[in-house]
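Most newcomers find our protein records easier to grasp once they have seen one. To make this concrete, we reproduce a full record directly below:

===
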Amino acid sequence: MSSAFDPGALLSRTYTLPRGPRVRLRLARPADSPAMQALAAEWGIELNPFELEHLLRFDRDRAVICATALVGRGETFVGFGAIVLEPRAEPKLVFVDERLTEGLGELLCAALSGRALAITRARAA
């Protein structure tokens, strides 16, 4: 699935999931830290604030993507993931709100893998 994902459209589309709201994928930013902490806590995992801050800093060797959805009257943070930018890399961290979304984990993994593949190919060219 990752080779079929268009990472160039990452920031300009919404994606329809099998069940749940349409989601928008975007690059994560430092302001997402509280939402990321809360989502990880729902999984029973406490993210180290310093490691999370490091994860959210720009790094040429890593991509962090988050997913948001319109729920009610506002945008809701529904997932995030990270991948090292290497050929054939696998996402190393993925959290999704499974109560609101079905299929988001697969979409997020495909987006991360597609982004890593596109960036490593561009660097090799």
User: Anything to note?
Assistant: Strands lie at 14-15, 23-27, 62-71, 74-84, 93-96. The chain has one domain: 2-124. The two ends are 23 Å apart (CA to CA). The mean pLDDT is 86.
